[in-house]
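Human: I wish I could look at a protein chain and see how it folds. This is the protein in question:
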Amino acid sequence: MTWKPIVAGVDASPQAATAAAFAWRIAQAANTECYLVHGSRPLFRSAAAEFVADVNALIEQQMEAARMGVSATIERAVPATALRALEVRSGRGATVVTEVARRYHAGLIVLGGKHHSTLGRWMGGSTAHHVVRVTDIPLLVTGEQVGAMRRVLVSADLSYAVQPTFEAAARMARLFGAELRVLHAVEPLPVFAELPALWNEAAFYQDSTAQLERCLEPLLEDVVAESVVRPAYAADAIAAEVAAWGADLVVVGSHGKGWVDRLLLGSTTERLLDQLPASLLVVPVPAPPGERRPGRAERLARRARQTVARSMPAG
């Protein structure tokens, strides 16, 4: 399968140099183009333009200063040809990166990972968080260091997202000749009032394992991968598996959430972006036409009822 172009968002941070270098590595391995882009916010609001003698000249100076700062940071990470093609545009970083990625019909966006507290995100924002909420293009956020890509861990949640998420992980694993492991987290379940006598957590764990095997069976015909099931919240299970197995890349599917859900509860994807236990590939997976993505409690309640129903004797 032919790879589409790769777009890397860069700035004057050390993390941007890591992202640019890794994006270039992927592009070279996949025999595709790699474009570097930087978004520079205007230094003044449009309302202040009337007090500036030559607005265009000021913008040009700002863009050139931004180009010099970014170039000085990433010049050792990428070839001179890539550096000369660096595109600097006026605007918010997340907006510029997504617009350029759409223009090039990119198959992957790469950004440098930065650790953010919840307060820091809401006060200052995060390019990775903003991009992952709006783009329909896979987003790869690099970890603190990116060495040899030897082990790829993919998170499977037993939904319609399993296939596209697994396929993206398998593609990265094939590109670098990496091992592939599938992780499913069986999250702690709330108490359901309608299931007081029939509830069996061990049966639910066993049912989750069986469902994972059924989901993976058609996907493992041409791909070698082992699967593991861990009892924990997804983000915690992923972080623990990265530490124990030594994963270099984590691949997750993102269903998307409303802003209220993100404000009150967050999401597995956003927790991983904050913690960044390894480089993270987020694969956007829209719901099938006519299907609504249920909330966590609703999904778990449905699964629990199905497990109890399967465990009851026929007749």
